[in-house]
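Following up on my earlier message about protoporphyrin IX containing FE. Here are the inputs again, as you asked, copied directly from the submission form:
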Amino acid sequence: MQRRLRVWDLPTRLFHWSLAACVVGAVVSVNIGGNAVGWHFRFGYAILALLLFRVVWGFAGSRYARFASFPPSLGAALRHLRAPSAASAPPGHNPLGALSVYAMLLALAVQAGTGLFANDAIMWDGPLKNLVSNAASDALTRVHKINRFVVIALVLLHIGAIAFHRLARGHRLVGAMVRGDALIDPADGAPPEAARDDAALRVRALVALVACAALVWALVSLGGKTGGGF
Ligand code: HEM
Ligand code: HEM
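Thanks, got it. Here's what our run produced:
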């Protein structure tokens, strides 16, 4: 008989689905082109704020959201690949998932960071483009254009891995990222501890998110355009 265990606090879940929506929004809007590129910028700013929030949450969040609970380790990831599958997924990111989480966060940070200095050679300049030379802006635009493939590949791999866990192992990871609870099989050993997800934690997350958004606002305003082109 499986039992429910809170694994992902509400802020982590909202972070996840907002990030996914903004990444899709950024890719779709830039492909529509024209005035939609303004939305590409806005989605990019939102992604920057979300990434900053996730860094804060990696230290201030609940048990399984903390970086300390899923340290990046190639050795552990390889051991995880060789390990026999457990009947129920242990709570939190497994060592292989951890590497993919860090890779996605890093690739998205590079993507959004280079976007701030990018230009499309016609009418759209990232808000900080004027802070660097034209040659540097062109180089960062090239990184932006190449790294998009890294972002897209990592996201596809991520979704593929989630599907693999569902189909080959029976792990319902998506349900946990939606409702917050994982299904734990008590037969797997001592029951793991639940994550905190109370009102005080959620208020802490809101304060952190507002601070991160303000920081991004200040950053994109550095280029001189009022409000960073919002
Ligand atoms: C652009 C799209 C997406 C991006 C950028 C993305 C990114 C991420 C990130 C950064 C995490 C780590 C969460 C954290 O610890 O803060 C994560 C976890 C997760 N994502 Fe996504 N995601 C995307 C789409 C999806 C989709 C479409 C699904 C559902 C099919 C999904 C299901 C999950 C699940 C289940 C986890 C938790 C994995 C685990 O238990 O270790 N993601 N995702
Ligand atoms: C993670 C967030 C982002 C993603 C996934 C993303 C993705 C993309 C993609 C797919 C393109 C199209 C490249 C092409 O078709 O040639 C592009 C172009 C561009 N992006 Fe982003 N971007 C992001 C963030 C940003 C941000 C924050 C800014 C600036 C505020 C920005 C500014 C630009 C500019 C100026 C271009 C035009 C470059 C060109 O096509 O010549 N991007 N981006």
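One observation from looking it over: The chain has one domain: 3-229. Hope that helps, and feel free to reply on this thread.
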